[in-house]
Amino acid sequence: MKDGKSMILIVDDTPKNIQVLATILNENGYGVKAATGGKEALDMVDKSPVDLILLDIMMPEMDGFEVCTTLKKNEKTKDIPVIFLTQKLKLMILYADSNLARLIMSPSHLTLPSFWQELIRT
After folding, report:
1. Cβ atoms within 10 Å of 25's Cβ, excluding its own
2. Cβ-proximal residues to 81 (8 Å cutoff; 6+ apart), any chain
3. Which of 9, 20, 38, 59 is surrounded by the fewest CB atoms within 10 Å?
4. Could you give the CA distance from residue 38 to residue 55 in angstroms, rounded to a whole number?
5. How confident is the model at residue 121, as a pLDDT?
6. Which residues pair with 9 in a beta bridge?
């Protein structure tokens, strides 16, 4: 958390997606960092931890699942919550606790607009 704001890292290989998400988050009082690839994201969180990661699944070189697996194996980053976003605007939330990571999929497959409403409310 920087300056009292929750810091969110957006990881997506499509700059327009980053721009849209960053605008929504900034307008709602969140701090935002962005990475266009998995290796860049891993370097960023290693240097400066974040409160949440919004992670695209389909990326070249290193996909979102590989990024998440690497994060969860690292003692420094294993407890950072990760939200996977897909092209079909469905989401999966990965929560980590001290012993394991549990994959929880919303039974209603929240769409991106309803997801943002829920995220901003919390």
Report:
1. 22
2. 51, 52, 53, 93, 94, 95, 96
3. 20
4. 9
5. 59
6. 33, 53
**Count of all residues that appear for the chain in the document:** 122
- The model's pTM: 0.74
Partners of 56 in the β-ladder: 85
Distance CA 111, CA 99 (A): 30
> What sign does the CA torsion over 81, 60, 36, 70 have?
positive
Given a contact cutoff of 8 angstroms between Cβ atoms, the answer to whether 22 and 10 are in contact is: yes
What are the pLDDT digits (tens) for 25-43?
Answer: 998 899 999 999 999 999 9
Distance, in Å, from the CA atom of 32 to the CA atom of 52, rounded to the nearest integer, reads 10
Q: What is the distance, to the nearest Å, from the Cα of residue 98 to the centroid of all Cα atoms in its chain?
A: 19
Token pair listed for 78: 């294993």
